[in-house]
Amino acid sequence: MMSDVHVLSAQEWEHFLERYPEAHFLQKREWGELKAGFGWEVVRFEVEGSGAQVLFRRLPLGWSIGYLPKGPLFPGSQPPVSFWAALDRVCRGKRAIFCTLEADRWEHEGGFAFPPPWRPSPRPIQPLRTLVVDLRGSEAEILGRMKQKTRYNIRLAEKKGVSVRPWQDLEAFHRLMEVTGQRDGFGVHSLEYYRRAWELFHPSGQCELLMAEYAAQPLAALMVFRHGRRAWYVYGASSDRERNRMPTYLLQWEAMRWARAQGAEEYDLWGVPDADEATLEAHFTERQDGLWGVYRFKRGFGGELRRALQAHDRVYAPALYAFIRYLQRGVS
Where do the domains of the chain lie, and which CATH numbers do they carry? Predict the structure, then answer.
């Protein structure tokens, strides 16, 4: 305990989260344990009914960088002043150069203000903009909100013999991820990382690994997470075989059906280019860089375009902060 800051154990954090059944899955104990196994230190704390799970990446000479993903959790419309003071104490105790906070708020919702001296971050961790599919209503109504071509591709996959089922072959999933990463130019976690994520979240029904196959050949797979009313498509992969059978369309639809069965009312497609809808629609056919390559696919599922509240930084060592941000300029 630091003054009036209660540093919580993993079990105590579980108990604390019972007050916040709609917390983002990045604030779940399981996510903290996942990151703790791959180079992060996790601190969970509570003060006056508010709390957060904060990750710290150790740097040389005893310094660290803090990251508070999709939090904090608090009653009312704003975190109390005591929360910000407690977070400062936690970060200073870990010799953080700075802490990046990405609130679990959409930009259009408002109602969340960062106090001075927090400043807008030049480098968000999670994608700022995404598409969120409404899972309420009947399956026919959900399909009806999709674009005609997407509905056609879902049915085409079924007609062409593609089927989707839960999967437990994490090694094969990782191989698919490597194929996709090389093809589409994005980073891929280690096999151990995906296996640990599945082991932590799957037993409690908060995660499923789904695979689309044809003639006993895995064609595509994804890992979907769910907590409360929300579900998130986080990791996905596809092979270069049988792409004309449209396996990824049926796979996403089955992931949505799984999420609905678990009680989710919305499905977050987890990242599209950070541009307004008019710009996205004007340029998606001609651009393939970054998240533009997946926007064409994701837009067909009828999701609502949303933008997260901008990430903010709290700086504790200004000279080192400026140096780190300088090094990061131009790094994608």
Answer: 6-122+309-328 (3.40.630.30), 129-307 (3.40.630.30)
